[in-house]
Design brief:
Structural class: alpha+beta
Number of domains: 2
CATH architecture of the largest domain: 2-Layer Sandwich
Number of strands: 15
Number of helices: 9
Radius of gyration: 23 Å
Strand content: 25-35%
Helix content: 25-40%
Largest sheet: 6 strands, antiparallel
Order of helices and strands: HHEEEEEHEHHHEEEHEHEEEEEH
Distance between the termini: 46 Å
């Protein structure tokens, strides 16, 4: 169901000027674009588009709330002023996820074919819009969380990516070892206290995929449950919402992928009855000195 909106009305025009992809346009340029905008009203639980659909339409949320569902990833929420659909418009390929309305919503739409049609929208105006769309895609793809596991392995360890051969098994002593668990938790806590990152368990420092067989868990659920309990007990229940863990691959090539978001509260790791504060320093994890913790926490979490 759709309804007409006069986009040149002051209220709607001011809203469009605030949308990220139109911010570089002059009022005159924006008025040329609004000729090709149309609206789409979405009911609660209605699907805007499904994953693998082939439409190339850009959407702007006028009001309401929608969610993006992607396989193996946490849902993303879109609200007033947010833009989505940019990847399909730029690469002219299938949708990478499914968008559904969480509540009744009104969307402003712009067809990709109109953006690239210089007879409708002049090239200099289209270019400004495309540059902003490209920035959105670059920001999205530059995060480790949105990079494929195998691409992360190929690129190697860095400030935001770390490999661990096992979660609990010491390959040298051939025994289960609490220090192996501690090493993984150090990285997770450091990512929380810094800018986030991804821990891959089952991969050695030379990028070889060792799999999870050495940890000898009964099944994948037991592996994930063990990690969750470690985080709850050693870092804190309140920090579990910043972690998303999944197991990828099959048989001997399985990898435990742990995506960690930056925490909004300090994350201390309990070890031998001490609470230790870890941060990322380049591609490594470091324990922060007591004399430095207050200043860091104040600037990182409360500034």
């Amino acid at each position: 169901m759709a309804r007409d909106i006069n986009f040149t009305d002051a209220e709607h025009f001011e809203f469009l000027k605030s949308v990220s992809i139109f911010k570089k346009l002059t009022d005159t340029e924006l008025k040329q674009v609004v000729k090709y905008l149309y609206v789409k009203q979405i009911d609660k639980n209605e699907t805007v588009f499904a994953r693998l659909s082939s439409e190339q339409i850009l959407y702007i949320v006028r009001y309401g709330k929608l969610k993006l569902e992607m396989p193996g990833q946490e849902d993303v929420i879109y609200e007033k002023g947010d833009v989505f659909g940019e990847i399909s418009v730029i690469n002219h390929k299938f949708r990478s996820g499914t968008i559904k309305a969480v509540e009744p919503s009104l969307l402003i739409s712009l067809a990709g074919k109109d953006i690239f049609n210089t007879k409708k929208i002049p090239a200099e105006i289209s270019l400004k819009i495309i540059v902003e769309l490209a920035k959105m895609i670059t920001d999205y793809l530059s995060t480790a969380e949105n990079t494929s596991t195998y691409a992360l392995i190929e690129n190697g360890e860095n400030d935001y990516v770390e490999f661990k051969s096992t979660l609990r098994y010491n390959l040298y002593t051939k025994k289960f070892d609490k220090e192996m668990e501690h090493a993984a938790l150090k990285t997770i806590a450091a990512f929380m206290n810094s800018s986030g990152g991804t821990l891959l368990i089952g991969v050695d420092d030379d990028k070889n995929i060792l799999g999870l067989k050495n940890d000898k868990f009964k099944d994948d659920d037991k592996t994930l449950l063990h990690l969750t309990k470690l985080i709850q007990e050693r870092i804190g229940m309140q920090h579990t919402s910043f972690v998303r863990a999944v197991i990828e691959g099959t048989d001997g090539s399985k990898i435990l992928r742990v995506d960690v978001k930056p925490s909004n509260i300090p994350a201390y790791l309990t070890h031998n009855n001490d609470e230790i504060f870890y941060v990322r320093t380049g591609p490594a994890t470091a324990q922060m000195k007591v004399s430095e913790i207050y200043s860091y926490i104040n600037s990182r979490f409360y500034h």
